[in-house]
Design goal:
Oligomer: single chain
Order of helices and strands: HEHEEHHEEEE
Largest sheet: 4 strands, antiparallel
Strand order of the largest sheet: 4-5-6-7
Helix content: 10-25%
Shape: globular
């Protein structure tokens, strides 16, 4: 049995919704609906069916009673029934390769393994005890972005971690 090559976990963010739609169209993950649809019930029913059948995401170009330039994009995070593209919509929206696995996606969302080295220590006084807080949100040299985690070093040197976004 041939194995599928591993998808790259390198992030390449798309610059706009238009770029996202273009990439999904290249993969066959968007179907344009040019027939006029009713926004109140019909659009929701079609989107629900798209999710249930793992069909390409629906892009509604004509909505009854709405200006022609406004469109609705439904099921942007739905799964695909195409081989190797099961989570392609989610992967692309996170800047990953469309063939990324569920594991790749989850790993891209958690704090990197070396996150402890990115915290800026701040002394916090609470009542009679003194804690040290390591703050998230600062720019650091460890990653190409902003740190996401918060860690408190308790006097007993036990640590609680929380991922707050």
């Amino acid at each position: 049995m041939a194995s599928t090559p591993a998808a790259s976990t390198e992030k390449t963010y798309l610059k706009s919704m238009r770029a996202y739609l273009t990439e999904l169209k290249k993969l066959g993950e968007v179907i344009e609906v040019d027939r006029e649809v009713n926004w109140s019930l019909e659009v929701g029913a079609i989107i629900r069916r798209v999710y249930e059948t793992q069909s390409p995401a629906a892009l509604f170009n004509r909505i009854k009673g709405i200006e022609r330039s406004f469109r609705i994009f439904g099921a942007p995070a739905g799964v695909s029934r195409q081989p190797g593209l099961y989570l392609s919509r989610t992967a692309l929206s996170l800047g990953l390769d469309p063939r990324a696995s569920a594991r790749d996606i989850v790993e891209s969302l958690v704090v990197p393994p070396d996150w402890n080295s990115c915290f800026r220590e701040i002394e916090v006084r609470r009542g009679h005890s003194e804690d040290h807080r390591f703050e998230r949100g600062h720019r650091c040299g460890q990653h190409s972005g902003t740190c996401l985690g918060v860690c408190y070093a308790l006097p007993s040197d036990q640590r609680r971690h929380s991922l707050q976004f």
